[in-house]
Design goal:
The complex is a heterodimer of chains A (154) and B (191). Chain A is mostly helical and 154 residues long. Chain A is built from 7 helices and 2 strands; from the N terminus they run H-H-H-H-H-H-H-E-E. In chain A, strand 1 and strand 2 form a beta hairpin. The longest helix of chain A has 24 residues. Chain A is elongated, with a radius of gyration of 42 Å. Chain B has 191 residues and is an all-alpha fold. The radius of gyration of chain B is 18 Å and the shape is globular. The chains are: A mainly alpha (154), B mainly alpha (191). Chains A and B meet through helix 1 and helix 2 of A and helix 3, helix 4, helix 7 and helix 10 of B.
Chain lengths: 154, 191
Amino acid sequence: MNWLETPQDDSERLLREGLDQATKRLGDEITHRRVWAIVADALEKPQPRVYGRFVFASAALVILVGAGAVALPRLLPSHGSRGATGGLATKTAAHAALPSRAEPGASGAAEATATPVDQTALLESERVPGHVVRTRAGEHARVALGGGAEAELA
Amino acid sequence: MGGKQFTKTPSHSQAALADAEIVNACRSGDSAAWRNLYDRYAPLVHRFSAALGVPIDEREDAAQDIFVAVYRSLRHFRGEAQLSTWIYRIAARHAIRMGRRRRTREMMHLTMVKEKPPIATDPSERSTHIATLDRMLAKLPPKKRTVLVLFEIEGLSAKEISDVVGCPENTVWSRLHHARAEMVKAARRMV
């Protein structure tokens, strides 16, 4: 038995009749033929392949590789600066922080800080990977490292 | 299950058997099978779209879109549900999407020109109770409307409706109960 088949009032009768008529709303033959003509046309066309995911994945990969290529050299110090010079400079700087055996007295320290400017410039210009920086007793040298860091050598 | 639906289409088991054959033939590229599928389901799609509020001037476009969607995704149809249930699901989703777009369009139109756009009506529906029913259905929220239409107009069972809308059967019954109460209330206000 259908809902509202025995209506209690006009409003329920109206509703039931509306529902009954709605079940017969099947469209006309002409409309169906017209729609079929368009649908059949779409069926004849080759089905579009779903390239979307492939394109998206490729684009994402290219962007990631590009970003990596740009960012990696900035994030990691170059091989040369991390190698001989960098290591040496760090080690030497650490040693410099400690009171040195060869460090002269008060007058000597004053003399050592008065490093000739041309000496610093010479050391900086000779900074190449594998280059050993030597300082004589009482001399200070400032070495510029990769990434803007500096090491004070004594 | 109401008997209305299957007086218009072959009996339940016959329809299921024929549907499986049609689906297989369609998958193998048989254009006659596609025509068969279309002839079988075009009236259903038309009726369902109309009941879900697709206006007369958009029903052809809606039917085209639905059948093209059926064509494109038939290879994903696993045959677990009936073909009709699956088509209802596509049609319901499409009708709800169209309704959302239409409401946005109407809102924009109202904002721009401050008056409602004219609603096209089917001349054959003007003198009937359908126009009144459509006005009452239009007041229902889409989920309740879909359940009511599937049960009262399309004649699906609660189980089939739960497959179409993707919710438990209890939810179907609950939505149907509320939709019926709202429809009766709306009908009383109109008379």
